Amino acid sequence: MDQRVATAQAITFPAADGYPLNGFCWRHADVDAARPVVIVNAATSVRCRYYARFAAFLHAHGFDVITYDYRGIGESRPASLRGFDAGWIDWGRLDFEAALQYALAEFPGQPIQVAAHSVGGFLIGLAASGHRVSRVFTMGAQYAHWRDYVRHKRAAMFLKWHVFMPALTAVCGYFPGSRLGWLEDTPRGVVRDWIAPQPHFADIWRRGGARRLPDGERRELVERFAALRAPTLAVSLADDEFGTVEAIRRLLGHYRNSPRTHLHLRPEAVGERQVGHFAFFHSRFEHTLWRIPLEWLRHGRLPAEPSGEVATLRPEARR
Questions:
Q1: Distances from the Cα of 136 to the Cα of 3, 19, 47, 152, angstroms
Q2: Would the CA dihedral through 14, 68, 205, 188 be positive or negative?
Q3: For residue 78, how far is the Cα from the chain centroid?
């Protein structure tokens, strides 16, 4: 095992409803109030262990780092997923909130930052304490609105993720993704939220098959996105079939009070034919792609390389 990965400590902390969440922490021995602590939010049904080398990389460059698994996944999986009804709303409102509370308690006074992959960038806005985050980096962050899937694969992706996945979930009581090599096994509530009609963000939990929340509760969740003031860098790859430009911009639009930067890259910028939605956090990109979050989380700026198309969105309101 990579020696840097071996420095992680196993951690356990409870969500607000008492559910035990498990993960890992890379912590420096000395206390430094100026040192940021980075929480890594995983993609849908990707185990936190996948991000271990990225976390170790950040730790080696001066950060404290926390990775954790959402309920139902990896280290936080119950004995059986059959009938286990966790969804995205639980992952954000309860689980990411718990990770924030853990960071606040274990690293008092230190700035809290987030590095988020895919739906992990969406979950930030669901946490009551999201406004405590000081800087955000996201990779391919979106919430699976099917019309935003890459055009030439959209029909096949719709059949795979919005027809076959929920059908198999209905039979099994959860989605057995690991047997198919499609994801980790996934709670049925996550599948329900994934396939819900999402023409407008405010309708995510009001229409179709998604969990129906009271209007007041739904509005409160939506407004939490507006509470985030942290400067945000959203990276997308040109060959990412989920995180298209449209998908990234759709999510960024809801963090309307955050100064937002969108960096769109082509794989050729790092000498690759393809990177896609999942490979960004592979250790082979330590000296190329990983320099982007490192520079952003350290200094709030883009590195000179790799270069891509940059768009900025100004906050609608200021403190």
A1: 27, 26, 20, 31
A2: negative
A3: 21
pTM, whole model, 2 decimals?
A: 0.94
Residue 202 burial by CB count (10 A; 0-12/13-18/19+): exposed, middle or buried?
Answer: middle
pLDDT tens-digit map of 5-49: 558 999 999 998 999 999 999 999 999 999 999 999 999 999 999
List, in order, residues 6 or more apart from 117 with CB less than 8 Å away. 40, 41, 42, 43, 46, 51, 138, 139, 140, 141, 280, 281
Peptide linkage before 108 cis (omega within 30 of 0): no
Tell me which amino acid residue 70 is.
Y
The DSSP element (H or E) to which 138 belongs, if any, is strand 133-139
- All domains in the chain, ordered by first residue: 5-144+214-313 (3.40.50.1820)
- Write the pLDDT tens digit of every residue in 274-306: 999 999 999 999 999 999 999 999 999 999 999
Burial 225-257 (b: 16+ CB within 10 A, else e): bbbbbbbbbbbbbbbbbbbbeebbbbbbebbeb
Pair type for strands 20-26 and 9-14 = antiparallel
* Bridge partners of residue 98, in order along the sequence: none
Name the percent of the chain in helix, strand, coil, to the closest 5.
40, 20, 40
Amino acid 131 reads H
